[in-house]
Amino acid sequence: MADQRIYSRIRIIVNRFTCISHLICTQSFPVHPVHSADAICPHLSQKPCSQSVRGRVIPWEELGRARIPGSDSELVLAQRGREYSIKIAGHTSELMNSRLHGSEDALADYACELIVNRKWPRVLIGGLGMGFTLAAALKALGPDASVTVAELVPEVLEWNRGPMSMVAGYPLTDERAQVHVGDVADLIRASDAAYDAILLDVDNGPEGMTKEANDWLYSLPGLLAAQAALRPHGVLAVWSAGADDRFTARLKKAGFSVQTRMARARPGKGARHTIWLARI
């Protein structure tokens, strides 16, 4: 009987020790079903450590190039994981990045909130980019809206239908969206009281980088043409990488009442961009 009691106590101690050991091990070293040896002690396995794989820098991969009409410059589309970038060849700064589109969204949000209650609103967007402004406009407006986006570079349209189609949520598939491959300036010149809102995200704002002909859009004649293309109480919304007091004065000289708003590249952080809301 004494031997049996001793044996029982030994079993209890062993069981408790096993439970405590299991608890310590599972809390200190989470067991992964496939690579548990790597998780507990990486040098026990001949496989490379998973953290070194996750921590490696993913290089940019160039997906395409496109000549800008009327210019000697090229646009370059690149991808890094799920991130996309468009820049001018030979420049380090980006024109746009799929992670930094807060101000492109705001361009549409700020303008469309001024016309959202109108029946059959018509909107013209200058510059497709990565599709974020178009997507935001379609989201802000009702089913009776019509949104035309003018894109000068045909390859940018193909990129939005191809490798970048998902980044903005496939706005080009919306039946309310129409695409004009060409210069938005041509549409503005040819229009008379046609749009409730004109949204310009062309080049880098009034101080352009890609095409000298874009300067006309921000000149006094260009602003007067935009005013003529707008319906009564319409809004001209202009995106810019930075503030420009001379452009504000030019808008006022053209007869617009002007409001200047700021928007961040990312929610609550990132670069501060300028958006002019000019109304007639």
Describe it for me?
The chain is an alpha/beta fold. The protein has two domains: 2-54, no CATH class; 100-279, Vaccinia Virus protein VP39 (Rossmann fold), CATH 3.40.50.150. It is 34% helix and 28% strand. The protein contains ten helices and eleven strands. The strands form two sheets. A seven-stranded mixed β-sheet has the order 7-6-5-8-9-11-10. Helix 6 (154-161) links the parallel strand 6 and strand 7 (177-181). Helix 4 (102-112) packs parallel to helix 5. The longest helix is centred in the first third of the chain and has 27 residues, at 2-28.
CATH superfamily annotation of the largest domain: Vaccinia Virus protein VP39
State the assembly state of the protein chains: single chain
CATH architecture of the largest domain: 3-Layer(aba) Sandwich
The average pLDDT value, as a whole number, equals 83
* Count of strand segments: 11
The secondary structure category is alpha/beta
Alpha-carbon distance between the two ends:
103 Å
In what order do the strands lie side by side in the largest sheet?
7-6-5-8-9-11-10
Please outline the major beta sheet: 7 strands, mixed
By CATH, the topology of the largest domain is Rossmann fold
